[in-house]
Amino acid sequence: MNDETKANPTTLSRRRVLKAGAVTSGALLIGGTGVAAAYDFPSTNENNEAKGWPYVDELDDDNCEVTLEFVNDTNSLAYFEYRIDGETPEEADTPHPVISGDVIYPGVTVDGRGESDPVVEIRTFNATSMVEIRLALGGERDWDFDWTPFTVPSCDPETKNDCKDGGWEAYGFRNQGQCIRYVNTGKDSR
User: Fold this and answer.
1) Using the 8-state DSSP alphabet, how is residue 33 labeled?
2) Which of 25, 42, 58, 179 is deepest in the core (most CB within 10 A)?
3) Taking the model in full, what pTM does it have?
4) What distance lies between CA 118 and its chain's CA centroid?
5) What is d(CA 17, CA 27) in angstroms, rounded to the nearest whole number?
6) Domain locations along the chain
């Protein structure tokens, strides 16, 4: 040690600083491998439809529901995950193998293997505002697309029975009488 280091114990030698830097850099490199990275979806639902890859299309929307058509014109599997009203279902707890830090949502499997014509599955979903579909599980990563929203029309009661047993609350009415008046007259007093 030189006299300057003895006089000031906080002074570090250049060699010690370089060693400490090398150890810290190595720890950062090793420690960084566990950090979840965002998934860069290579396609969109619209691009998939244009290219003949698996896609989803809206067939109909009605009071509190939307009907979707899932199409697969490839010789492979496609698993379309769905999310209703932005919620993650409690039973969705299996880690997603493609999207780090996410889970596998319920979905619709469309198996195009061995089929010469497009395979189509039709599903109707009940929701209050939106159903979202993504494709991140299936035969090719090139087909993956992020959540694609399908808006659900507002929910309105259609019969007096819809207003009974607290149903009026689900439709946003202040009481059962307002709900029944809406069914009978179409006058909305929410």
Assistant:
1) G
2) 179
3) 0.70
4) 25
5) 15
6) 3-34, 45-151, 156-190
